[in-house]
Amino acid sequence: MHQFIDRRANPKGKSHGNRQRFLRRARDNIKERVDRSVRDKSIQDGDGVAAEGEKVTIPSKGLQEPRFFHGPGGNRKYVLPGNKEFVVGDAIPKPDGGSGQGGRKASEDGEGNDDFSFTLTRDEYLEILFDGLELPDLVEKSTVETETIGSRRAGLTTAGTPNNLNLVRTMRNSLGRRIALRRPSAQAEADLKAEIEMLAGLPSPTEAQAVLLEELQTRLDALQRKRKVVGYIDPIDLRFDTHVPEKIRKSRAVVFCLMDVSGSMQEREKDLGKRFFLLLHLFLSRCHEHTELVFIRHTHVAEEVDEETFFYARETGGTIVSTALDKMREVIAERFPPQEWNIYGAQVSDGENFGNDSVQCRKLLLEDLLPVCQYYAYMEIVEEDADTVLNNPEAGDDLWQNYRTVKAQAPHFEMQRVSHAAHIYPIFREFFLPRIKGGQNA
Amino acid sequence: MLDVKPGSNLLFEGPEWSFELLEKARDAIEEIALKDLGLNVYQNQIEIISAEQMLDAYSCTGLPLMYQHWSFGKHFARDEALYRTGRQGLAYEIVINSNPCISYNMEENTMAMQTLVMAHAAFGHNHFFKNNYLFLQWTDADGIHDYLAFAKNYISVCEERYGLDAVEEVLDAAHALQTQGVFRYGRPPKPTAQELEAMQRVRDGHESARSLLDIWTDTTLGKSKEGEHRDEPFSARRKSLNLPQENVLYFLEKHSPILKPWQRELLRIVRMLAQYFYPQKQTKVMNEGCATFVHYYIINALFSQGRLSEGAYMEMMHSHTNVVLQPEYDDPRYSGINPYALGFAMMRDIKRICEAPTEEDRDWFPDIAGQGDWRAVLRNAWANYRDESFIQQFLSPHLMRKFKLFALVDDADQKDLVVSQIHNRAGYKEIRRALAQQYDLAYLEPDIQVTDADLSGDRRLILSHTVRDGIQLEEENKREVLRHLRTLWGYDVCLNAVETVVES
Question: Residue A135 is inside which H or E element, if any?
């Protein structure tokens, strides 16, 4: 009469649709908080966004579900338990604000003035973080895709190699055919044989038995003939799995992180650089199946290093920017053929460069790097109080000036100045906002 | 571990549960519930779910087939955050008023808890759902799942056809008026044959019957009536529109000048569900009291039969004690009167009055004092009362003394709260009346009715809020709800406060 049902194995995420609607509803608020969170984010922890998601707190305004209910005031009566010393007529000071049930009712719905906190999954977080951003240069030059040939199942055929034989389907056909054509079973044959043997073994068969034996013998012959004609497995039963070759497109990207680590780059400058690289990596890993990072640091010489060394090792020396660009060119030539990889360059520097080297940088960029890059971003970190420099793109050192001429010629080259962590994200967005470009790789 | 030793009478040993043990426990519980207590229950469908699924069920007001709306996502996110940070536990079970009666049990429960929960939900709540007059009159336990399936499907089709935003707008507005979407006093006017036909068409597939619908929808019906009464006075208009109307959603569904048929159907869905839940809101004390009384009785009966180990019994009693804890008003844990505690105590008290009444009980409850058959008295109470009338009828002086109840008067004009009654001879009646009123939804929820709408004139919708004891509506929410109301009505809406003096 009463039954149990085990629902534990039912698919999870039944409320997924509700959650989507909720995120959609609160999108603007969430977006603002996510943007702010990335600005204030400490980037000590490896890749920045925890795998289990990000906690966000949004104002509950706009998410309220209003109802008619009684406000404070008026003449009310309450019944409470636990009287200890009161007698009729005792006066008790009102609790704060004197709000009675009205106030309590309001907070029951979780709709006080409190902010609303919940956890976004990593994917939701990134989706919102990079909402509206686009890969640069997609208009003119499609991303590089490598094609590998894979295979995909494509149903069944009647011909094929034995290793592709689909046993289940073959046996199903075989069984059906055997039933339809009334193939005698091995059991029936064995029974008949046993009976014949029994009769044949009789020392003195009666006439009836002899006739029966004869008849059984005929039946056995017919049965065996039929079993031979209707085979256990017939070629028409055979079914083979087929696979068709399929082109699998994969896009791979490599991000070159170039940073000046000479004496003039302090903790603050490196931290700003790291935030920028982090965002770039997160963003690009959403756009490509596979993203690699190459870290190149330079003083007066450049070298490729691992992430740890890149951000935390100290180095002294002069500053020759072109060495890093040269290194990048080398690495590309060695390991990342541009026809297989989408190449992105991101460079962070404080803008200082040795002597006449900036001209060399411009040349390297224009002639060697930009033609193979999808995008190249240069971020210059300036002093915290250097507002005049920050707001005046025309002022700047040798390197800045040279890069400006590069920018004038290459639309997929971007440059910006930054002095605070809070600037990074807006500038990052600016880099990747969709725009109409005239890529020179067209 | 799982197998009970031969010769032992125990239903189970150890904390682990299995489906065989559950079935065994269920049979033992059923025996007591039906034969001893004389309960009458719907067939049970007990579903074992995980914590995640319990959270899902939470956010959708417990109904497994709820339609989709962002507010459920919001509740889910909030409950999940509270649960994950350990600030809120999950219920052991959720039970749905349906036939068969579905209850969800958490997989984390121990076998002892599963047993307790089965007795509580699958028999206690189940009996209440099947027998209480409010549920019988106002809800359709047989049809609720079909209706929910229809609603969910209908709304998702609307979302596809008219867009998420359009559907969300109507649902938001309807949700805001949910508490005004129930018939409290009278049964809803029976739909006319034409209306039924129109509804049927809407359900059968509105695409094919759309043109026909224009002929048959309620708007056009309303319009023709409106034509007839064009020059007639206010009273005739009120009569034709069935005014005053307490069910605002119903009124909008039938008479809003701007809503399209699918929008009317959405309003209908929201108000049907509000009506479905309305009995539950009116019977919190009784429903929980009934379930708690039943599980308490059954557990004790099982224990005295030697079918529960002492460990299991202690575990159940520990949980039971937590559930019926009533902190006093000055306790930091106090958050109102605990419906489990009050309901359970009152039902136990009824049993006591039936079996061993005092002189006082004989004065107060001549009908039942010493009557002996407490089972019949309780079954009668479960069937024929709601919280307000139950308290008014059965709260005894004995229990008022035990809870040490006292009444406070909170007058906005006065500086202090004043103790108006305490648990003594002079105060019993008044405290009982005041407590009963605290459970009267008609008193707790604002009384808002549609009083006039001149469909042929300026089409302004006039509602009135009957103010009792000077208690006004909360302003900010009122503004928001009126904004939603305007969306649904399409024309000007005004809400008048009507002061009344209620002599006590």
Answer: none
Output the pLDDT for position B7. 54
Residue A432 to residue A137: CA distance in whole angstroms: 10
Asked: is A251-432 a CATH 2.40.10.10 domain? The reply is no
More confidently predicted of B1 and B97: B97
- Domain residues of chain A, as ranges? 14-65+114-131, 162-240, 251-432
What DSSP element (H or E) covers B50?
none
SS3 of A40-94: the string is: HCCCCCCCCCCCCCEEEEECCCCCCCCCCCECCCCEEEEEECCCCCCCCCCEEEC
Cα A67 from chain centre = 40
Backbone angles phi, psi at A249, to 5 degrees: -95, 135
**What residues in A contact B327, CB-CB < 8 Å?**
82
Instruction: Please give the angle made by the CA atoms of A265, A269 and A273, to the nearest 5 degrees.
Output: 115
Beta pairing class for A116-120 and A54-58: antiparallel
Mark yes or no for CB contact B471/A21 under 8 Å: no
Contact A292, A440 (CB under 8 A): no
Could B179 and A84 be called an inter-chain contact, meaning their C-beta atoms sit closer than 8 Å? no
Look at B59 and A15 and tell me if their CB atoms are within 8 Å.
yes
Which chain B residues contact residue A63 at CB under 8 A?
74
pLDDT(B132) > 60: yes
Q: How far is B358 from chain A (nearest CA, A)?
A: 23
Question: Under an 8 A CB cutoff, do B474 and A106 touch?
Answer: yes
Domain range list for chain B: 19-132+283-315, 324-443, 446-499
Cβ neighbours of B410 in A, within 8 Å: 75-78, 94, 98, 100
Band of residue B127 on the pLDDT scale cut at 50, 70, 90: very high
- What number is the ipTM of this complex? 0.78
Residue B25 structure tokens: 């426990």
Q: What is the pLDDT of residues A169-222, one digit of tens each?
A: 999 999 999 999 989 888 999 999 998 888 888 888 788 888 888 898 899 999
Out of B337, B416, B469, whose CB is closest to A91?
Answer: B416
Q: What is the least distance, in Å, from the CA of A435 to any CA of chain B?
A: 29
| Strands lying side by side in the sheet with B447-453 | B447-453, B461-467, B493-499
SS3 category, A7: coil
The 10 Å CB-count burial string (b at 16+, else e) for A291-325 is: bbbbbbbbbeebbbbeeeebbeeebeeebbbbbbb
For the beta carbon of residue B159, count every other beta carbon within 10 angstroms: 19
The partner residue sitting opposite A15, judged by closest CB among B72, B415, B435, is B72
Cα nearest neighbour of A75 on chain B: B411
C-alpha distances out from residue A313 to A261, A308, A309, A322, Å: 9, 7, 5, 21
Question: Predicted confidence band at A280 (pLDDT cuts at 50, 70, 90)?
Answer: confident
Element (H, E) at A153: strand A145-157
Q: Give which of A8, A56, A79 to mutate to test B binding, by max B Cβ within 10 Å.
A: A79
Find chain A residues with C-beta within 8 A of B484's C-beta.
66
Nearest CA to A80 out of B285, B330, B394 is that of: B330
Residue A408: count other Cβ atoms within 10 Å of its Cβ: 9
Does pTM surpass 0.90? Answer: no
Nearest to B431 among A12, A73, A79 (CB): A79
3-class DSSP assignment, residue B431: helix
A201 - beta bridge partners?
Answer: none
Q: Do B408 and A68 touch (CB under 8 A)?
A: no
Q: How far is A3 from chain B (nearest CA, A)?
A: 5
Ranked by mean pLDDT, the top range of A153-157, B267-271, B457-461 is B267-271
CA–CA distance, B144 with B273 (Å, rounded to integer): 9
